[in-house]
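Predict structure. Chain length: 307.
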Amino acid sequence: MNFTLHQIYIFLKISQIKSITKTAEELNLTQPAVSIQLKNFQDQFSIPLTEIVGRKLFVTDFGMEIAEATEKIIEEVNALNYKTLAYQGELFGKLKITVASTGKYVMPYFLADFIKLNKGIDLIIDVTNKTKVVESLERNEVDFALVSVLPEKLKVNQIELMENQLYFMGGKQFKLDNNTMSNKIFEELPLIYREEGSATRNEMEQFIMKNKLPVNKKIELTSNEAVKQAVISGLGYSIMPLIGVKNELRNKDLQIIPVSGLPINTTWRLIWLKRKKLSPAATAYLEYLNGKKEKIIKDNFSWIKGY
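Prediction complete.
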């Protein structure tokens, strides 16, 4: 056999994504380039690795076994690279973080300089809703999780990063007559919710239940960006995290509608399992955060104080 690491890596990605087109997009390659590499890799085997059924790509049972082997090969190659960096006195390894959806507006700022300083660390971030974040942490699949609400059943350590504020917002179409609106506004306006499992949705529902507010019409969308665009268009109104709408507020595409009892204030926390044995990379990152978080907040999030 005479295959290359490049072919191995491409086949591993194809086996995970189950699409040549999407694999090409993720690897910043052309579709023909990926197809050629797959063909060249397939030529090393007498048994099919993939098959096309109804214009969809499937990985055969044999192909899945080869994919498992290629994953181990890639891990060994990475281990060689990490050992080289270790002998040079540099930090190395993977740093895996799962982030609640709105946290994507926060977490990169707390990572950028650390990753620049430690080129031997590979960063993997998964952005999803709160429920899946907690599941990843519970299964010990990640080093850290960024949440605004602590999980109830997990024993975790934590470091507080910054405040998270949620306001009631509408598009520029809304005419604000008074400085503060009555809670009856929730009965009069269509409300847009995040999907089940979202921390933002949970906070919104708790606020409505606590204040016994009637809801006239409910719309459900599955991402912060979708909610944002829907509110901008005038489709409805929502309780939204301030952190994700900086430019929209400045451009006056969105406006904060003052409502009694708002904003809702929570705190972004980086958490990890108490039983977790942290890697040198993860330990170094915590030390970095403890020393730099105040400066990061001042340099990147001072604008929040204006609201």
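Summary: Residues 61-87 form the longest helix (27 residues).
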